[in-house]
Every structure is written in C-alpha cells, then in structure tokens.
Amino acid sequence: MNRQIFSYLLGIFAALSLTLLLIVLVMDPPVGDLLELGILLGITAIASGAVGYVSHRLGWWRRFKSLTQALAVSYLIAGGLTMVNVWLTARLMFINSHDLALATLLLLFASSISVLFGVFIAGSATQVLRDLVKGAERLGSGDFSTRIEAVGEDEVAQLAKSFNEMVHRLETADASEKALEEARRNLIAWASHDLRTPLASLRAMLDALADGVVTDEATIQRYLQQSQVEIERMSRLINDLFELAQLDAGSLELQGEAASLSDLISDTLERFTARARQAGILLKAAAQPEIDPVWMAPDKIERVLNNLLENALRHTPAGGEISLQAGMENGDVHVSVSDSGLGIPEEDLPRIFDRFFRGEKSRTRQGYESGGSGLGLAIARGIVEAHGGNIWAYNNTPGPGSVFHFTLPRQGQPQAPQQA
Questions:
Q1: Which helix (H) or strand (E) holds 409?
Q2: Residues in a beta bridge with 283
C-alpha cells in the first residue's frame, strides 16, 4: 500500500475517531446509543473510503481534458458523499421526516457552496499549470525569454520556479553555444588569414628565387631569412591549434617532475630579453628561492610563461616595463606577469581566457610582428588547471597596464587535464 492511500485511510479513521470523541464530550449519549451511532458512522466511513480507493485505482480523473474539470467532479463526489453520510445517519437515527427534509436541503445548499468554492480555488491554482503549458510551448519554439509568474510556496509555485530556473539555464547554454559557434567561425577566419598571409609571402619569395628574378646574394639571404620567419609563424599557429585540440579532448600529457621554477623563469627571461630591448621595453624578474622544487611539467609551464610574456610584449609600448615575479602564497607557488601597457577593457576581462578570443586590435602595439591567434591565454589556462592551479587577470589600479597571475601546488601529482 503506497503512502498516499495509507494517508487517506488514516485520515478517515482519524475523522471517525474525532467525531465520536466530540459526540461523547458534547452530548454524553448513553452507551447503547453511542455504540449504535459508532457502527453507523463506521459503515459510512468504510463506504466512503471504498469509493475513494476505487476512484484512485481507476484513475478516472485522467480522462478529463483539464485539471479544473477533474477537481470539480471530485468536489461533487465529495459533496455527495457528505450528503449521503449525514442523510443515512440521520435517517437511521429516526429523525422525523420534516427535520430530515430540512437537513437534506441545508446539506444540499452547503455542498453546493463547497463545490463552487472548491472549483473557484481549483481554477486559480490550475492557472499556473496552464501558464506552464503555454510557456513550454513557447520554449519549444525557441523563445528563451519565457518566464512564469511564481507566487507562493506551494508545489505549483515551486514547479513554476523550477521551470524558470530551467529556462534560465537553457538560455545561458544557448548563449554560450552561440558565442562558441561565433568564436569558431572567427577562429577559422583568423587561422585562414594567418596561414594564407605567410603562405602568399613564401610563394612570392620562392617563385622569385626559383625563376631567377632575384640574383644578388644580399636579397637572396633576406628572402631566405624572411621565409624562415614565415615558416616559424605558421608553425606556432599550427602548434597552438594542436595543443588546444589536446586540451579540448582531455588528452594533454603532463610529464611531471620536481623541477626548479626559478631556473625556468631565468631561462624564459633570457629568451625574451633581446626582443624586449629591441622594442625599448624593460624586462625584469624576481623569484624567491623557497619556491623550489615545484612538481610540474617544465615544458608546459615554460609554455605558460612564454604565452604570458608574449601577451605582455604585444600590449606594452616602447618605454614600458614588464615584471615577472614568483613567490609562495598560502602554501602554493604564485607567479605574476605585470605590464605597463594600456590595460584590458573591462568588457574583455571575463573573456580573455576563452578559446578563440581576441581583444581589441587597438591594444596591440603597432609594429609587433605576430598578432595573437587568440589561443595563447586559453592554452595557458588549460595547462595551469591541468596542474591543479588557477589563473586570472586584472588591470592595475591605480596605474597603467594589467597583471596576470597563476598558482601551482608546490607538491603533488598534476591533475587530469581540463578543457581550455
């Protein structure tokens, strides 16, 4: 027996018991009359319980086209049961015909009022359900702005609130999907442009060399050097795309070891020093000795440092400064890369680590030879999170420029790779 049926039968027993108790307290009838009345009330209670149980088993209310109609019929049956119970009891208790007729008419009036009241309240309660049906239809047609008014704390109100929460999640997922699709289209356009441009340049220079158009040694050497630059640019872009695909698939391999982050920072700084000096940018770094050793994949963390420094150089004008700092904070290794550039537009801050995202072109320092593919920061985030760390950024306040931070657990195995 399920809980609903048990509660229903228990309620009938409680009503019968309470009625008999009140009769004893109010009327103090003789024992014989009380016993006879108890038997009559028990018979009508069993009959009423049987009607309710059969109705439950048959599920006849499901045949109605609306819940309001089903509830109205339920109230009619309840009112009818009330009249029958009282009428039979009164009849068997030998009430005279005049009083019985009056009691019947009064019961008919009271039952009618009860049914009308129940139908009215049912119509108000089921209005939310009708709104939910219409809302579901609008949602099915793609209208994610659909919302249902949820008033109260009952089950219907909770259903409406759950519906609104579901629509909100669907709206957010739809917006994310559209943004991702737009980003993918942008990536294809950018990647095509970034590959087509060096390929066109390579073709022109190689054709010139192959056709003998260029004959002097100086020009030949310049064409060959430029060809190497274009090949390196395409190689970087292809490597970015490949590594991003690994992060998306969760197949990035981390060859972890206890290594020196200080040495890695020093080597990275050395590689960028000449470029920074040529651009008129001061590049400096400092690492606290207590950070070593750090459990990490050195080649991957080197990639993170490279990407952050590339990003800083791209957005720092001549005469500016870039600082790389590393130390301990709350038991984790904390690394920051700050620059004195133009900063990041506030509307771009939440998206700078998204895949395929490129900020405003106006932020890129004029003359910088390799505009970003929009993948470097996304790859950096994926690598840091695969190590169990976090990465974030904000603008300097006060002052120009921005600061990028990432943390790494000092000890422990790297975690499973996360999607960038």
A1: strand 402-409
A2: 322
